[in-house]
Each structure stands twice: as C-alpha cells, then as structure tokens.
Design goal:
Elements: H1 10-23, E1 29-31, H2 33-39, E2 47-51, H3 61-71, E3 81-84, H4 88-99, E4 104-109, H5 114-122, E5 126-130, H6 135-138, H7 140-152, E6 155-156, H8 163-182, E7 187-193, H9 198-210, E8 215-221, H10 226-233, H11 259-265, E9 266-272, H12 274-288, H13 294-304, E10 315-320, H14 327-336
Parallel strand pairs: 2-10, 3-4, 3-6, 4-5, 7-8, 7-10, 8-9
Antiparallel strand pairs: 1-2
Helix pairs in contact: 1-3, 1-8, 3-4, 3-8, 4-5, 8-9, 9-11, 12-13, 12-14
C-alpha cells in the first residue's frame, strides 16, 4: 500500500545534524564560474556544486548511514548490520559501523566498481555478491540480504527507504541552506539525481522549508526513469530492469517514505542519456579537476544539455552525489565522450 503521509520531518533532520557532523565535516558548496558562463547567467546569479565526493566514503550515503546506525545503536548492541547496495551505501554503512564499532555484512552486485568494493572492505565490512544481470529474474539481491539477516540475526538497513537514512541525508540540505544564507544568497533552482529518492527527499525537507519558492528538479537516466514515470502516473511505478552507466541510480522504484516528499516539492523529472552523462564527466574534469562517477555527474549533465529552463533570479545548486569510479572506467567514458568544446549544446 502506498501512503501519501510524510513520515520524516524537518525536526528529524535537525536532530540528525549533530550526529552526522560528529563524524564527518560538511561537504563544500563550490561556486562554478565555468557553469555560470556555460549557462550565460547575469552577474547577479551564481551556480553552486554541492560535492559529496569529499566525504570519507566518497559519496553522500555516509550521512544517512551514520544517522541510521545511531538511531539503531541499542538494537545493534549484539547484532550485526546487513544491507544491499550498489556500492556507495555499502561504503557509507561500513564507515558508520566502524565508527560505532558494529559488524557489517553488505550485499553488492558482482559488477560494482572495484573502488566501491575496496572502500567497503577497507572500513571493515564483509561483502557478499550477487549476479545483477539476472536479479530482475531471480530476486537474488533481496533474498540474499534477508538470508543474512535471518542467519546472523542481523538488522536489515535500507539504503534509501528509511526515515533515519532520509533524515541523515537531509543534513546536507541544512548545510546548503546555511551556506547560501551566510553569503546572502537565494535559491531559484535545485537539480539533484534521483533513484530510490533518499538523497533528494532528505534535501527537500531542508531546502523546501528555507526556499519554498524555488524549483526542484530530479534527474535520472533515460533507461532508469521510474521516478518520472511515477510523477506522470501519480503513483509509484516500478521498472523491472533499469539500465545505465549510472550504477548508483538503478533502483527498481522510488522508496515509499520518499515518495510523498518528492511529490510535494519536485517540479518535474528530467531524463538524461548516458552519452550526455559521459560528456558531463569530461566537462567537470576539464573545468574543475574533479573525477566524478556517472551518478554524480548526471545532474550537471542535465544543465549542460538545457534541462531545466534556468530562467529566474536566484542561484542554482547542483548535487554531485559521489565520485567513486575506477580509473579505467573513468578514462573510457571520457574518451568516448564528445569534445568538451561542444558540451554546452542542448
């Protein structure tokens, strides 16, 4: 049963803030003079990148993971944690469990980037893999996580569809609000990747309260556009086999806890081709020296290719959700992309 009732509040986000900041510092809000030029903005407007690649786990996922482990710390006194993850929640949860001295057993797809396996194991988690190519037929991912929970008496964490995870992610939204207000700036556009929806839902709780007049856009890959389909249908829509180079944006559907928040605030869903994401990865590297994973670059890809219309008076904030990508994949995507000189063409 779907619910339109919001189960996470801005108060929960404020409660999560000291928890998250006890273990990780705020991620930087970086001004992009290059993007302002690409978009032809007047001097009165600015573009900011919120870059979660600076976290210990290389993505935003560590915020939600820290708040989740803190919220369940009593239940985890003698129990391990388990979860399934494409990779970034795996390393974020592994980091959180290390900080709280808890055992973690993570289920990851067999084709996850090496760097995501290495980070997860480096923080002390155990990893088990499943065949992602057949998961839409076998359901192996969920079954394996449930088996671990039963066998190990482990507590099962959701990478995106949990109130504590959403509230922890929302701390990043509070950081954005604080930074913009300290600069005396307003927000007109917020552009963010969406998959299960935990990142965007958390941020919207903070940003929607502070800047209710702003436009909020969710970006997803062309062949993994379940959220846009859900917006059009007015109900959560499931994709049986999402496909994209954006390995962190391949959830089958948006989370139940995230859906009412996203419905309330998101103006529209934006769909981006993988080719556009590749060119955005090259653009970010050429203009900012940042190496981003595809899921982290997709919101910038949307701007570079004319989505959304950025007419307005305030500033634009774009989320870089993570930077965990193997060297060979990064170089290959950049090599296959168009030359950086033509990236701004819609």
């Amino acid at each position: 049963m779907q619910s339109n009732q919001v189960t996470v509040t801005i108060e929960a986000v404020h409660e999560a803030e000291p928890v998250v900041h006890r273990y990780v510092d705020p991620s930087p809000l970086v001004r992009s003079y290059a993007m302002e030029k690409e978009l032809g903005l007047p001097a009165s407007r600015r573009v900011w990148f919120k870059d979660y690649g600076w976290t210990p786990s290389g993505s935003f996922k560590v915020m939600g993971a820290l708040n989740w482990v803190h919220a369940h710390r009593v239940q985890l006194e003698r129990r391990p944690v388990t979860a399934h993850s494409s990779g970034n929640f795996a390393s974020g949860l592994a980091y959180a469990c290390r900080e709280f001295q808890r055992r973690a057993i993570i289920v990851m797809p067999d084709n996850a980037p090496r760097v995501k396996f290495e980070l997860t194991r480096a923080f002390g988690a155990e990893v088990q893999t499943y065949d992602i190519a057949r998961d839409h037929e076998t359901g192996e991912r969920d079954r394996l996580a449930k088996q671990i929970a039963e066998r190990e008496q482990a507590l099962l964490a959701s990478p995106y569809d949990d109130p504590a995870v959403i509230a922890g992610n929302g701390v990043g939204g509070l950081e954005i609000v604080g930074s913009l207000r300290s600069y005396g700036r307003s927000l007109s556009h917020f552009v963010c990747p969406v998959s299960g929806g935990g990142l965007m839902a958390g941020h919207l709780l903070a940003l929607g309260e502070a800047f209710p007049q702003a436009g909020y856009w969710a970006v997803e890959p062309e062949k993994a556009d379940d959220f846009q389909q859900s917006l059009r249908a007015g109900t959560i829509t499931t994709i049986s086999r999402p496909e994209s180079i954006c390995d962190g944006l391949l959830s089958y559907s948006v989370g139940q806890h995230n859906w009412p928040i996203l419905q309330r605030y998101v103006r529209d869903g934006l769909v981006v081709e993988d080719r556009a994401t590749q060119t955005a990865m090259r653009w970010i590297y050429d203009h900012h020296g940042l190496r981003c994973e595809p899921s982290g670059a997709i919101a910038i890809a949307a701007l570079l290719h004319g989505k959304p219309d950025v007419t307005g008076d305030g500033d634009i904030v774009v989320i870089i959700s993570g930077r965990n990508i193997d060297d060979d994949r990064f170089l290959g995507y950049c090599r296959d992309s168009e030359s950086s000189a033509s990236l701004a063409s819609p």
